[in-house]
Amino acid sequence: MDLFKIFSKESPSKDVAKERLKLILIHDRANVSPQFLEMVKGDIIRVISDYAEIDQDGLEIKLTRTGEQNSSTPALVANIPIKKMKDMGR
Amino acid sequence: MGISIVVTSGKGGVGKTTTTANIGTALAMLGKKVVVVDADTGLRNLDLHLGLENRIVYNLIDVAEGTCRLKQALIKDKRFDNLFLLPTAQTKDKTAITPSQMQNIVETLKGEFDYVIIDCPAGIEHGFENAVAGADRAIIVTTPEVSAVRDADRIIGKIEAKGLDDHQLIINRIKYEMTKKGEMLNIEDMTDILAIKLLGIVPDDEKIVVSTNRGEPAVTDDHSKAGQAYKNIARRILGEEVPFLDLEDENTGFFGVLKKLFKR
Amino acid sequence: MSSINIKGYRDGLKVYVNSCSYQQLREELAQRIMRARDFFTGCRMYIVDEQKNISLDCYREIENYLREEFGITLLYQKGDKEEKKEKIFSGIYEGRTKFFKNTIRSGQRITYNGNIVVIGDINSGAEIVANGNIIVLGTLRGMAHAGYNGNKRAFVAAYILQPSQLRIADIIARSPDERTEKSSIPEVARIKDDIIIIEPYLPNKYL
User: What range(s) does the Septum formation inhibitor MinC C-terminal domain occupy (chain C) (predicted)?
Assistant: First the structure.
């Protein structure tokens, strides 16, 4: 049965369910509100802006888990597109 | 002094009441003196599962308000002399009783019975607080669906915050065929996510509907797979080591039996 | 109908509570007293609550309220035999009647100090409590209690009588556990020799 699995592109729906659940539960357990994330986002923009010019609309911040597989420790991941580094920092 | 166990889930419709009725009946069949308590005031159903709905005169709320004595509100089961039901009111709401009143009632019942099994309402509000108030142990019921598992996680967090650390999981309505194909969360997935000790697995069984229709818990039917699972759960509650039902054998019929023979 | 009636007696005023909540009672009582404050101030008052809508805690609250606001002494109705006899609702041949023109659903409880007529069904899990008779022009599946405050001659009649439980006065009967055949004609339940019996309704034969 597992042989077929290798060839099929779609992962079984229970794995999708499990992945989704893990992410949801990280959010639920951390009890983080969207407002909180917005606040963090605002502060990050403020700090980074001193050193670099960033694309504020492209800034993405989310709560996920740490890199290790199956870890359930929450991690804050931010994706900050930098347009140009400022000179003063160097 | 007996033990009080609350059966809870967060999400509705996962089988709390069925579980309560079956575990209660199974423990009584094993010779224990048991009372099942319906804490779902305003939406009571435990009486229907046991087929005792036409015997109710007084209820939990009457006891709390002092309208009657606790003994008067207890209804003896029609099959087992050592099984009792404490129904709740259908025409009141959940604020009609407080957690401390509930705790007192459960404490008193523990003096009389070996096991006090409390059927918790869905949700995390007043009714949940009442049901959990007097409990020594908790059984969390979930089904292999993302929504049920998420709610179970929330409930586990809630009861742990109350210091109720003695909790175990029942996974209800497992469909073996689907888990085999990877189309349904399996037992490992759920125990992995919820990180809680497993008390039992109950297979999806159409006969449960028939049992509820008749008001006869599945454990009274020797041919019911779900009933067998609940009997095993009852024995585990008593501290026995009972292996989990081998769902594969249950479902593959003839070949399952053959395989079992070859294993030996 | 208002939720309370006040009547004067030799030993004080009696407030008769009809089917109403504690909140309603309190509001209406305060209103009535305000309208004739001088008349009420310093009097003795009884509250007659036949349907027991008011809990003991609420009694105490009303008692304190009346004493502090108006100097009214609230006395408890003494449960002597004469009073009790007087309290039993006897208007089952002729008397006040309340009509309901809808389905009474699970979780609903209807109480009335008189007869109740329901034009509709009473579903399982609903409760109908009357001090007089109960007549259901529909199917009775829930719990019906006629003659709640002791009238043993009260009856329950329904087009289709399948209650989970029937009570008349202080006698309780429950439906049989095994399935019974449904009656195709209306039925009437009443007390005979201290048990509740159910008879088919035959025109001109009953009452």
Answer: 100-198
Regarding chains A and C, contact by 3 or more CB pairs under 8 A is answered as: no
Q: Which residues contact C48 (CB under 8 A, 6 or more apart)?
A: C14, C15, C16, C17, C77, C87
Is there a contact between C165 and B54 if contact means CB atoms under 8 Å apart?
yes
Every domain of chain C and the residues it spans: 4-85, 97-200
Please, are residues B52 and B79 in contact by the beta-carbon 8 Å criterion? no
| Whether the Cβ atoms of residue C96 and residue C117 lie closer than 8 Å to each other | no
Q: Which residues of A touch B192 (CB under 8 A)?
A: 70
Give B144 to chain A, closest Cα distance, Å. 9
Q: Which two tokens stand for residue B189?
A: 């997935």
Residue C4: strand pairing partners:
C17
pLDDT tens, position by position, B115-159: 999 999 999 999 999 999 999 999 999 999 999 999 999 999 999
Which ipTM was obtained for this model?
0.76
Distance of CA B16 to the CA centre of its chain: 5
Confidence of residue C7 (pLDDT cuts 50, 70, 90): confident
**Sheet bearing B167-174, strands edge to edge:** B75-76, B83-86, B34-38, B115-119, B3-8, B137-142, B167-174, B197-203
Task: Give B12 to chain C, closest Cα distance, Å.
Answer: 19
Which residues from chain B sit within 8 angstroms of residue A21, using beta carbons? 146, 149-150, 185, 193
Domain limits of chain B?
3-263
Cα C28–Cα C32–Cα C38 angle in degrees, nearest 5: 150
Going through chain B in order, the beta strands assigned E by DSSP cover 3-8, 34-38, 75-76, 83-86, 115-119, 137-142, 167-174, 197-203
Contacts of A20 in chain B (CB under 8 A): 146
The binding site of B consists of 11-18
Give me A75's structure tokens.
């991690």
**Whether B183 and A13 lie within 8 Å, measured CB to CB:** yes
What is the rounded distance in angstroms from the CA atom of residue C168 to the CA atom of residue C195? 9
CA separation for the pair A43, B108 (Å, rounded): 56
Contact C174, C139 (CB under 8 A): no
Q: Does domain C97-200 have CATH number 2.160.20.70?
A: yes
Residue extents of the structural domains in chain A = 34-90
Choose the mutation target among B47, B54, B61 for the interface with C, i.e. most C CBs under 10 Å: B54
Closest residue of A to B149, CA-based?
A21
Which CATH code, of 3.40.50.300, 1.10.443.10, 2.60.120.330, 3.40.50.1110, is assigned to B3-263? 3.40.50.300
Q: Which residues of B are annotated as a binding site for ATP?
A: 11-18
Residue of B nearest to C54 (CA): B65
Query: pLDDT in tens for each of the 90 residues of chain A?
Result: 455 545 556 778 899 999 888 888 888 888 777 788 888 888 888 888 888 888 888 888 877 777 665 566 778 888 888 888 877 655
CA distance B214 to chain A (A): 34
